[in-house]
Amino acid sequence: MAGNAERNSCLQSKAIAPGRGDALKGIATGREAIAITRDFVTTLYGAAESARRERPYLKETMAATREVMDPKFSSFAIYEHCLPFNVSRAFDEASGIDDPVIWTAERDLQMWAALQGG
């Protein structure tokens, strides 16, 4: 399977520079970081997609997604800060929006109003 061989060769990096924190050095550390990231994204989207099907509102989707995400990922750096934006994007995708909505100050206000409103 060329796809697996190609993918595995990409995971032979000797270091990864994440968006936060120290560089991750060593192949094993890099693979672990990629696996954790994959788990985070998969869990986030799965929870948001499931919640979105049952609850058509961002606030309810956020609450349901937190129930799944918090026990496993709440210790991650800037988790609290980024989760609303992550859930909002997953909510958009689960709602059928294929392309990311450009994030503006207005969109930021709309998201926070949806999360904090009644």
Describe what you observe in this structure.
The protein has about 120 residues and is mostly helical. It has helices at about 1-10, 25-55, 60-75, 80-95, 105-115; strands at about 15, 25. The protein has a two-stranded antiparallel sheet. The relative contact order is 0.11. The model has no long low-confidence stretch (mean pLDDT about 85).
What is the topological layout?
Blueprint (H helix, E strand, L loop, with lengths): L1 H9 L4 E2 L7 E2 L1 H28 L3 H16 L5 H16 L10 H12 L2
Antiparallel strand pairs: 1-2
Helix pairs in contact: 2-3, 2-4, 3-4, 3-5
Helix content: 55-70%
The total of beta strands comes to 2
Average pLDDT rating: 86
Q: Beta fraction of the residues?
A: under 5%
Number of helices: 5
Unreliable stretches (pLDDT < 50, length at least 5) are: none
Order of helical and strand elements: HEEHHHH
Terminal CA distance reads 51 Å
Concise structural overview:
With 118 residues, the chain is mainly α. Helix content is 69%, strand content 3%. The chain is built from 5 helices and 2 strands; from the N terminus they run H-E-E-H-H-H-H.
